[in-house]
Amino acid sequence: MSRYIILLLLNVPFIIAGLVSTTINYKLSKISKLRFLFRAAFWLIIFVGLASTKTIYEFLFSNKLTRTEPLSLFDVIEITGIIGIFFIVNKTRARMHNLERKVQELNQELSIKLSSRD
Amino acid sequence: MVKTSRSSELAIILPAYNEASVIKQVIKGVQQVFNATRYSYKIIVVDDGSQDETAKIAVDAGAYVIKHIINTGTGGATATGLSYARKSNVKIAVTMDADGQHNPKDVLKGILKIEEQTADLLIGSRLTDKNGMTKIKLIGNRGLSFVTYLLFGVYVSDSQSGLRIFSEVALNKLRWKTSGYEFCSEMLWRAKQQNLRIDEFSIQSIYTDYSKSKGQNNWNAFNIIVALLQRRIREIVSE
Q1: B58 Cβ under 8 Å from any chain A Cβ
Q2: ipTM, interface predicted TM-score of the complex
């Protein structure tokens, strides 16, 4: 199997997960339309970029714009790793942000409730 | 002076952090001005996790004190004060600095202006009467107002002013996400998003060595700009 196909197959789950999560959040009114469009466009650009890796490489090589070797198995693992880490970091950051907001709200509500008892 | 048993019409909120040396004087100053008016009011001090006697002194001076369990920053303390005011069903809420920088007479002037119902959020601008403000602070404040305009499309001459007056509509609608000094600019943005009418009025600032030492360091302006940029980008790309 071509390494370009392997690259695409390994990364498609991240892209699908990103798109599904964005769509669910939008449908549940958790994010605005602008944010939904931005995030959907982001994952689609990654998909198009990965799907056209071979075409881009061949174009650059034939026009003598690059002299690098074709995609190696190490490159496939590396790119998949970067996209995977990006996916996880983004999820973690969003969760951390929500947690921070909840702690702040808790501090606020608790402070008001405790002050009324004094 | 008319004092009734009904709930207060006004909430005067003082977010405070380690202000033990001046808080009594500030509360007494507000009481002196407002006791001579027709308003029933409540002074709410939000002690943002002070390590000194701010809360105790404020209670003794006659204020209602909300003590934050952890220090959150001036934006968080202001949000707590306004949340309490909302629950108390007040008609108008005011925030002012607890370091004695604001003149309570200016607060009264602003309340009279907001009662005319021409604005929902009124900002007390220190930049129309610059008495005592150092040039570097002036540049910093003007710069932050400009950045606020660039990022959020809202222009007021003194976007970082702590003296703000909220109509009942603004009080019920306004929420923000940042908890540090950057909340001043974010609040203006949220007000614009909620279609609230924003206006400003001229106030006099009382600069003492104490209030100068408590005010924002100019270098903090860079932190504020970075935080505002992050907030603006985060609004588009993440949850």
Answers
A1: no
A2: 0.74
